[in-house]
Write a structure and sequence with these properties.
- The complex is a heterotrimer of chains A (about 325), B (about 500) and C (about 325).
- In chain A, about 75% of the residues lie in helices and about 0% in strands.
- Chain A has 13 helices and two strands; from the N terminus they run ααααααββααααααα.
- Chain A has a two-stranded antiparallel ribbon.
- In chain A, strand 1 and strand 2 form a beta hairpin.
- In chain A, helix 1 packs parallel to helix 12.
- The two termini of chain A are about 30 Å apart.
- Chain B is globular, with a radius of gyration of 24 Å.
- Chain B has two domains: about 240 residues, Rossmann fold; about 250 residues, Rossmann fold, CATH 3.40.50.
- In chain B, helix 15 packs across helix 16.
- Chain B starts with 7 loop residues before the first strand and ends with a helix.
- In chain C, helix 11 packs parallel to helix 13.
- The termini of chain C are close together.
- The chains are: A mainly alpha (about 325), B alpha/beta (about 500), C mainly alpha (about 325).
- Chains in contact: A-B, A-C, B-C.
- Chains A and C meet through helix 5, helix 11 and helix 13 of A and helix 5, helix 11 and helix 13 of C.
């Protein structure tokens, strides 16, 4: 034992090497897509076009950040898109009363937080798997939106409310985009640099051992659900502001693309591993693919084939590679 | 006896898992109409061997012969079709299914023409088998309503429901009462007469001498010796098993016993244990002995705040404490090294230093922001002291051997500066070197004034290490022995409800 | 000794009767045998899909792709029918069921051979299958006038006063009762879901049974593809969109445990009927159909809470007195 030198703060080799290589791989693909897109369409490289394109994925990307943490902790939330819808409906009603933007925003955030709290309480208090709980609340929250709105549209938003979803902070840098960058940094810090983040990994890897180590697993997961809900509320603010209207079908099917972003970013759907950096790159990759397909006029529903295929393909590829490698006789 | 007579034989069989070589070139012969005892300490590779012989694990190397023919057991199905059946140590059964279905799962009886399941026949057969082993259980009862002993009888009934030629019993008596053990002996004798080859795994030498014809000894995953029972005595077997004489194994050092640290008064739980009262003193190692399923682990988990529905009083250093969660227990100074190390003790994917720091992140990083340096420094002290074998404390715990993982768990708890440390089967499944290290370390701890509770199913270990011993049976404390009163006979008798 | 599960089915049956009676108080016509039959007929597809879903959930998986599978097979048989009206309808039904089987097998293979969590696989195939419907149809509808007479009329044809659609569901129920009680494969599905480790020890291949469950679920979805499209006499991309939630709700309400290994055919059928009565009652008592989604969501949540409470592990029974009490 004496012979072994203990040098603190050596780079961890095994784990981060693998993650790094996944992120590197993602970065390569993203770069390739970028090049293909710029070759395929002359409009692609225009900064304003790129900025416009970012609107299509930034709201989802913002939700992907807390969802990544939730999935790392071995839970899942399928109700995210429905939370966005319900929050948007709440904002519509507040706006109808003639309230100003701050109050409207507060309503969106508050309803989001409340929905997250409901999910979290159901999962932690009754110890029900989050997948069923959120399948239920997914149709509950969306259903309430339908009850409240039917097939009507709400669009009584004040003028200055449009800033969140349509405003620019500087040149072609939209408010949404800058907000996403800031939040990505915040979540990077939260997941990788705090006790909270460390506990998230520990819980995701082994909830029992984490509990036996004195971590309040239930409370931790509750907080994560609330955080997801709150950020969904925020996304609802941005989306509603950008569209300028609320329909009960708003953000329909977003849970699929958001979860795909997270999984594509290298977050293990079974919990325990993943990084914000990976999710960050994956978000851009998906944004670029969608934008590129849009440029060559591929309809939206076909996009869902590609997203669904990506979701399965990304998880299947490493498994297949491993199988293939194992089939080769050992040297 | 020459090899040609052996029904089932293994030669040069090896099996490795990440971080541990469970079986290393072992050999074994089972003869028809004979009981072969497989003897070895925890971690000698017995359970891995059983799983290799029943098609659950595939060996990395070596050959298996059945009736002289070379065979490979790719699936549990393949083993069963040869008539190889096992009663595993942990009874793995189906809670939600009926006793009948537990007996016949995987080899259901069907009507010849329609292929339909023949439930009346299966129920009748199940009834018959249960009657034969004198287990009065209604075959239609769902398994979840049975006691642990009854479940074990169902597992035995299951093994008997096959046309068995080789029967493996992996510590079958660990959870059985006196009466049930007598029944089991009867079953084994009948199987012998029917010409079955039987492998019997047990820690209890009186059992081995009562029932076995031959023995095979394993140590640390290696074959050590085999032969006929009439040619050896207990002392020789023990020496073969541990590789040295018994006195050397337990480095018991008497520490000064001080004031009571932990006082438990009438602790009770609706289904698991009742009327538990005891004191634990500074500098004391208090052993808890009992059969598997006697409620020891449940009691310890209750003290650590894992279970719900626990009532009664717990005092730490004369101060009443309420423990509703492990966090409460840790704060009160009680820590628990669980039996299920990988499931409950360590986070395999995290590095050593992060495992050690996990319970007290808020203390190390009071402002909530991680400081790798502080965490590493804390872990460094304990990992060094426990001599964790790893190139660096950044190694994932999953890459360590069982013994070193156990050291990490102990280190994690020492770092919280506890008053009471509970060790549940602390040497289960770890190699002999780590075992000795853990024992030596326990002595060190009590000398420093800690109080230790040790739960173990290995009687020599509890007797070798404890200052005092409490024996549990069916959730109750049945007797208490001081070190100078220890007698294997009396302890076992108390534990089996005698 | 009565288990909670048995109690639950009785409870559910009583609840359905009470619910129907309450609706009957508002509109007496609701309780007419002909209307009750219509309600059952209307619930048939849900029952069939829920039984397939139950098998999948029993093996600790979930199939979110059933509705998309149904839409795809429905569109394929509708397009085949409109292109080749001369092909006999039973052949088309067979083709639809086969296609559904294949789609289910794709899910099953991904879960079994690649070990990808079922939720990920079926979340992905759900949008892939739905997307393919669009690719095939180019977003266009197949309307009633493009379908052959036999294609549309078969499910409505009455045998002994009961429509074929209802008969089909009765047959599926009967087959499933037989399968889950009297067939080796059916019982092994329960064993595999109840305790995968023990199942492995007893030589039961859990992955293979997951594959079987997904295949059956797919087959039934394929069958329902034809039933749905012919019943509503229209096929389009969004057919049965979101219906997978109703299907899962029916299972959960019927006492199928999402943790696997627990659930019965009768519970599942009752769960579907419960939703069927609600769905049919809403318009009758003048509640807007917009309520339907929220109600099934709320019912899922309430049902899983009820399940969680009844399934909660009480810990090992060690004490003699506790063991005596439990009997």
């Amino acid at each position: 034992m004496e012979k072994i030198m203990h040098k603190p703060l050596l780079p961890r080799v095994s784990l981060s090497y693998r993650l790094l290589s996944w992120e590197f791989f993602l970065l390569l693909i993203t770069a390739a897509v970028f090049v293909i897109n710029s070759l395929a369409s002359p409009y692609f490289l225009d900064p304003w076009n790129l900025s416009d394109a970012s609107f299509n994925f930034v709201e989802k990307a913002i939700v992907a950040l807390p969802v990544a943490m939730l999935i790392i902790s071995r839970e899942i939330d399928l109700s995210i898109a429905s939370i966005i819808a319900l929050a948007s409906v709440a904002m519509g009603f507040v706006a109808q009363t003639g309230a100003g933007s701050p109050l409207i925003m507060l309503a969106g955030l508050g309803v989001g937080l409340l929905c997250g709290l409901i999910n979290g309480l159901l999962v932690t208090r009754f110890q029900i798997p989050s997948i069923v709980v959120t399948i239920g609340t997914m149709s509950l929250f969306r259903g309430i939106s339908y009850i409240l709105l039917g097939d009507t549209v709400m669009k009584d938003y004040p003028q200055d409310f449009a800033y969140f979803g349509q405003g620019y902070v500087y040149a072609m840098f939209s408010f949404e985009f800058v907000l996403f960058l800031v939040l990505a940094l915040v979540f990077y810090g939260l997941l990788h640099k705090t006790n909270f983040g460390r506990r998230t990994y520990a819980i995701g890897n082994n909830p029992t051992a984490a509990f036996y180590s004195g971590i309040n697993v239930a409370r931790h997961r509750l907080i994560l659900f609330v955080l997801v809900g709150l950020v969904c509320g925020l996304a609802a603010v941005l989306l509603t502001s950008r569209l300028g209207s609320t329909r009960p079908t708003i953000a329909l099917g977003w849970e699929l693309s958001i979860i795909t972003m997270v999984v594509l970013g290298g977050v293990n759907i079974m919990g325990g591993s993943g990084t914000i950096a990976g999710v960050f790159i994956a978000v851009f990759l998906m944004g670029l693919v969608t934008f590129g397909l849009g440029l060559i006029n591929v309809p939206g529903i076909v996009m869902s084939i590609i997203i669904g295929g990506m979701l399965i393909g990304v998880i299947a590829t490493p498994v297949l590679l491993k199988k293939f490698r194992n089939r080769k006789p050992a040297p | 006896m020459s090899e040609s007579h052996s029904l089932f034989s293994l030669r040069g069989v090896s099996k490795s898992f990440p971080g541990v070589k469970a079986l290393d070139q072992v050999r074994l012969d089972l003869y028809p109409g004979q009981v072969t005892a497989l003897i070895g300490e925890n971690g000698a590779g017995k359970s891995t061997l059983v799983k290799t012989m029943t098609g659950i694990y595939q060996p990395d190397a070596g050959e298996l012969r059945f009736g002289g023919e070379l065979i490979s057991l790719d699936t549990p199905e393949a083993a069963r079709s040869l008539g190889i059946t096992a009663i595993h140590q942990e009874t793995v059964l189906f809670d939600e299914l009926s006793v009948t279905e537990n007996i016949f799962a995987g080899h259901y009886l069907t009507r010849a023409r329609s292929g339909r399941l023949d439930w009346p026949l299966m129920h009748a057969r199940a009834q018959q088998i249960l009657q034969d082993i004198e287990a009065p259980i209604d075959p239609k009862t769902p398994l979840k309503f049975l006691s642990i002993g009854q479940r074990h009888m169902v597992a035995i009934a299951r093994a008997l429901s096959f046309e068995a030629r080789v029967v493996i019993l992996d510590e079958p008596t660990a959870a059985l009462s006196h009466h049930e053990i007598e029944e089991l002996y009867g079953i084994v004798r009948r199987l012998k007469q029917a010409g079955c080859a039987i492998m019997f795994i047990s820690h209890k030498f009186d059992e081995i001498f009562a029932i076995a014809d031959r023995y095979t000894v394993f140590r640390d995953g290696c074959y050590v010796a085999d032969g006929k029972m009439e040619e050896v005595d207990e002392a020789q077997l023990v020496t073969l098993m541990v590789g040295r004489t018994v006195e050397q194994v337990y480095p018991k050092v008497e520490a000064a016993i001080g004031e009571p640290v932990l006082q438990v008064r009438n602790l009770r739980h609706p289904t698991e244990f009742d009327a538990i009262s005891f004191d634990l003193h500074q500098g004391e190692i208090l052993g808890f002995y009992g059969l598997v399923g006697a409620g020891r682990t449940e009691l310890m988990q209750a003290l650590f705040g894992v279970s719900s529905g626990v009532q009664g009083e717990v005092e730490i250093g004369q101060q009443a404490v309420t423990i509703r969660s492990p966090a409460d227990a840790i704060k009160a100074g009680i820590v628990y090294v669980p039996e299920e190390r990988q499931a409950q003790g360590v986070v395999l994917e995290l590095p050593i230093y992060q495992n050690i720091g996990l319970p007290q992140l808020s203390t190390i990083n009071a402002n909530g922001v991680l400081s790798d340096k502080a965490e590493y420094a804390l872990a460094d002290g304990y990992a060094r002291r426990l001599q964790v074998k790893a190139p660096d404390w950044r190694e994932k715990v999953g890459n360590l051997s069982g013994g070193n993982q156990q050291k990490v768990v102990i280190g994690k708890w020492l770092a919280t500066k506890p008053k009471v440390i509970i060790l549940d089967e602390p040497t289960k499944g770890i190699d002999i070197g780590s075992k000795a290290a853990v024992h030596a370390f326990m002595c060190e701890l009590v000398q420093e004034g800690l109080a230790v509770i040790m739960v173990s199913s290995e009687l020599p270990e509890v007797m070798g290490m404890s200052d005092r011993m409490i024996v549990m049976h069916e959730g109750l404390m049945v007797s208490e022995f001081k070190r100078d009163e220890f007698s294997a006979e009396r302890i076992v008798s108390a534990a089996t409800g005698g | 000794m009565k288990t909670l599960l048995q109690n639950r089915e009785v409870l559910l049956a009583v609840l359905i009767v009470v619910l129907a009676l309450m609706v009957g108080l508002v509109t007496h016509d609701f309780l007419l045998p002909s209307n009750l039959l219509a309600v059952y007929n209307d619930t048939s597809i849900l029952i069939i899909l829920a039984l397939g879903q139950m098998l999948v959930i029993l093996t600790r998986c979930i199939d979110l792709s059933v509705a998309a599978n149904l839409a795809l097979t429905g569109m394929v048989v509708a397009m085949l029918n409109s292109a080749y009206p001369e092909v006999a309808v039973p052949l088309l039904v067979l083709a639809g069921a086969l296609l559904g089987l294949i789609l289910g097998m794709i899910n099953g293979v991904l879960v079994w051979k690649l070990g990808i969590p079922a939720i990920v696989v079926t979340l992905g195939t759900m949008s892939i299958y739905r997307g393919i419907v669009f690719l095939l149809s180019d977003g266009a509808w197949v309307n009633a006038h493009e379908m052959s007479g036999a294609f549309v009329s078969i499910p409505r044809t009455e045998l002994l006063g009961i429509p074929v659609l209802a008969w089909v569901s009765v047959i599926v129920i009967a087959v499933m009762v037989h399968f889950t009680r009297q067939r080796r494969l059916g019982r092994e599905i329960y064993a595999a879901g109840n305790n995968p480790t023990a199942a492995f020890y007893t030589g039961i291949q859990v992955g293979r049974l997951q594959f079987v469950a997904f295949s059956i679920s797919g087959l039934l979805a394929g069958l329902c593809g034809y039933l749905w499209v012919s019943r509503y006499a229209v096929a389009y991309v969004d057919v049965a969109a979101g219906f997978e939630l109703q299907v899962i709700a029916a299972c959960v309400i019927g006492g199928v445990s999402i943790m696997g290994g627990i659930g019965t055919v009768q519970g599942c059928v009752l769960g579907a009927l419960f939703l069927g009565v609600i769905n049919n009652a809403l318009p009758v008592i003048g509640v807007s159909p917009f309520w339907q989604m929220a109600i099934s969501g709320a019912v899922i949540v309430i049902a899983v809470i009820a399940n969680a409470k009844s399934e909660r592990k009480t810990g090992r029974i060690i004490l003699k007195k506790a063991a005596l009490q439990s009997h």
